[in-house]
């Protein structure tokens, strides 16, 4: 089995460098553009950070491939192959970034043969570096991470997001899911505004579960591995095997909690990330970010 530690270390290095751009722009006024909805925002900093990350990585690894949120938004085809591939979200939590709400992350996953080999999530304002390498554990600023192991859903804190979807079906589904969870009951439902950092809370044990429908592979590919390497469980929202392209995920402290959440939440139709973008899917939204 190939050792991708050198790639991981380089990925951490370029992530830290790119975070300086995010932090320098954090308190400044931003020029904001809309994408698929009034809650789906992009700034010049998103685009600049992605270009710098891809350029720096390509200089070191010219044969590697890339899937970047802003590149896909600009019309580049999203295709995950067996080749070494970097999946990049330059700013996860763009709405937070625009409003200076301090949960903003750079998320990078690295896949080979369509399997995630390592994941990096850097919460820039908090200066928290989450990372994991397949089979080697998960860490926060160098310290090992462990999911809570909680098996009783009634004792869980659950994290989720409303996201950028604003059509009636998506909104009614997401709000009714929260209602059903609170009726189970659970201890509480929380949202930080960034899927990558949300999921990492499960890896820390600070939250016991996370679920979402409508996010994209760049939002969750890195943090899914971080949760798994911390001893957590990651599945589809229907309880089946997790597919980063499906735009549906449950991350949980245990199989019991994941299964119980899967029993009560519902999904609205979403086009898979790697499907034909011109294929009509009722209720699906375009590229979105939390």
From TrEMBL:
<keyword id="KW-0378">Hydrolase</keyword>
<keyword id="KW-0479">Metal-binding</keyword>
<keyword id="KW-0460">Magnesium</keyword>
<dbReference type="InterPro" id="IPR033942">
    <property type="entry name" value="IMPase"/>
</dbReference>
<feature type="binding site">
    <location>
        <position position="92"/>
    </location>
    <ligand>
        <name>Mg(2+)</name>
    </ligand>
</feature>
<dbReference type="GO" id="GO:0006021">
    <property type="term" value="P:inositol biosynthetic process"/>
</dbReference>
<dbReference type="GO" id="GO:0046854">
    <property type="term" value="P:phosphatidylinositol phosphate biosynthetic process"/>
</dbReference>
<feature type="binding site">
    <location>
        <position position="69"/>
    </location>
    <ligand>
        <name>Mg(2+)</name>
    </ligand>
</feature>
<dbReference type="GO" id="GO:0008934">
    <property type="term" value="F:inositol monophosphate 1-phosphatase activity"/>
</dbReference>
<dbReference type="GO" id="GO:0046872">
    <property type="term" value="F:metal ion binding"/>
</dbReference>
<feature type="binding site">
    <location>
        <position position="89"/>
    </location>
    <ligand>
        <name>Mg(2+)</name>
    </ligand>
</feature>
<feature type="binding site">
    <location>
        <position position="219"/>
    </location>
    <ligand>
        <name>Mg(2+)</name>
    </ligand>
</feature>
<dbReference type="InterPro" id="IPR020583">
    <property type="entry name" value="Inositol_monoP_metal-BS"/>
</dbReference>
<dbReference type="InterPro" id="IPR020552">
    <property type="entry name" value="Inositol_monoPase_Li-sen"/>
</dbReference>
<dbReference type="InterPro" id="IPR020550">
    <property type="entry name" value="Inositol_monophosphatase_CS"/>
</dbReference>
<comment type="pathway">
    <text>Polyol metabolism; myo-inositol biosynthesis; myo-inositol from D-glucose 6-phosphate: step 2/2.</text>
</comment>
<comment type="similarity">
    <text>Belongs to the inositol monophosphatase superfamily.</text>
</comment>
<dbReference type="GO" id="GO:0007165">
    <property type="term" value="P:signal transduction"/>
</dbReference>
<dbReference type="InterPro" id="IPR000760">
    <property type="entry name" value="Inositol_monophosphatase-like"/>
</dbReference>
<protein>
    <recommendedName>
        <fullName>Inositol-1-monophosphatase</fullName>
        <ecNumber>3.1.3.25</ecNumber>
    </recommendedName>
</protein>
<feature type="binding site">
    <location>
        <position position="91"/>
    </location>
    <ligand>
        <name>Mg(2+)</name>
    </ligand>
</feature>
<dbReference type="Pfam" id="PF00459">
    <property type="entry name" value="Inositol_P"/>
</dbReference>
